Amino acid sequence: MLVEWLKGLGQSLPAAGESRCIRFESSPELWLERMGDQYVLALPMAPLPSNGLSGVMLLLLQVNSPMSALQPTRLTADSSGRLLLWLPLEELASPEACQSACDLLHSAYGALQPLLQEPEESIVIQTGNFFV
Asked: Which Gene3D superfamilies match (predicted)?
């Protein structure tokens, strides 16, 4: 269950309107927040790119596609324009499912973060399937 997984990390379930910061040694921190009857696990990213490259925007939009390899991860922006990866977690989720959710968010972060860097002289082109 979610509470067991959090206990192993020295955390407790957040109450409604509260959040918990979950830190890992070599990965970006995650935030767990209670929203209604469910919990949301989120990973803050960079601000929305100001360069407006249409290819970058299209790749970012594909995260929310039902065909995305990153499903059930979702991408949104907060009120300040900062991108946020998130996914729902049920209170009855097993510790393995909770860790898998963290791993998926960190994997998505690793795939998307290079797209959010200001372009230099050349843009790295990835090969293989990126999302679908």
From this structure: 3.30.1460.10
- Stated as kind and residue range, the H or E segment containing 109 is helix 95-112
> 17-30 pLDDT, tens per residue?
888 999 988 889 99
- Cβ neighbour number for residue 62 with a 10 Å cutoff: 16
| Domains: count for the chain | 1
Provide the residue range defining the domain that includes 54. Answer: 2-116
Contact between residue 76 and residue 86 where contact means Cβ atoms under 8 Å apart: yes
Tens-digit pLDDT profile for residues 31-61: 999 988 889 999 999 887 776 677 777 878 8
Tell me the chain's radius of gyration from C-alpha atoms.
16
Q: What angle do CA 89, 76, 123 make, to 5 degrees?
A: 120
- Structural domain includes residue 95: yes
Q: Which amino acid is at 53?
A: L
For residue 39, tell me if it sits in a domain: yes
